[in-house]
C-alpha cells in the first residue's frame, strides 16, 4: 500500500499516511489532531542493476553547444 507524506500547517509536523491509491487525494489529520494539512511531493528512488543490453555510449563533444560552434 502506498505511503503519502503530509505536513501539518498548524503545528509543522511531518507525517506519513498509508492508504490505497484511490484515496490518495483524501484529506489527512495530523497525529496531534489538526485538520489543516498539505500533501507533500514525494520522490521515488529506483536502484538496481541492469541485465543485458549495451552500455550507454560515452558523451561526445559534437553538437552546437558542446562543439564550440556557438559564438
Plain-language structure description:
Helices cover 6% and strands 20% of the residues. With 71 residues, it is mainly beta. The chain has a three-stranded antiparallel β-sheet, with no helix packed on it. The mean pLDDT is 82.
Topology (elements, then pairings):
Elements: E1 3-8, E2 14-18, E3 37-39, H1 64-67
Antiparallel strand pairs: 1-2, 1-3
Placed side by side, the strands forming the largest sheet appear as 2-1-3
User: Secondary-structure element order, as H and E?
Assistant: EEEH
In terms of DSSP E residues, the strand content is: 15-25%
Q: Please state the CA-atom Rg, rounded to the nearest Å.
A: 22 Å
The count of DSSP E runs of length 2 or more, i.e. the number of strands, is 3
Give the N-terminus to C-terminus distance in angstroms.
54 Å
Largest beta-sheet details: 3 strands, antiparallel
Which residues sit in consecutive blocks of at least 5 with pLDDT less than 50? none
Average predicted confidence as pLDDT: 82
Amino acid at each position: 500500500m502506498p505511503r503519502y507524506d503530509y505536513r501539518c500547517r498548524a503545528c509543522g509536523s511531518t507525517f506519513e499516511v498509508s492508504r490505497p491509491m484511490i484515496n490518495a487525494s483524501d484529506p489527512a489529520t495530523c497525529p496531534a489532531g489538526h485538520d489543516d494539512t498539505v500533501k507533500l511531493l514525494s520522490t521515488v528512488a529506483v536502484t538496481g542493476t541492469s541485465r543485458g543490453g549495451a552500455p550507454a555510449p560515452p558523451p561526445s563533444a559534437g553538437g552546437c553547444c558542446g562543439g564550440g560552434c556557438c559564438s
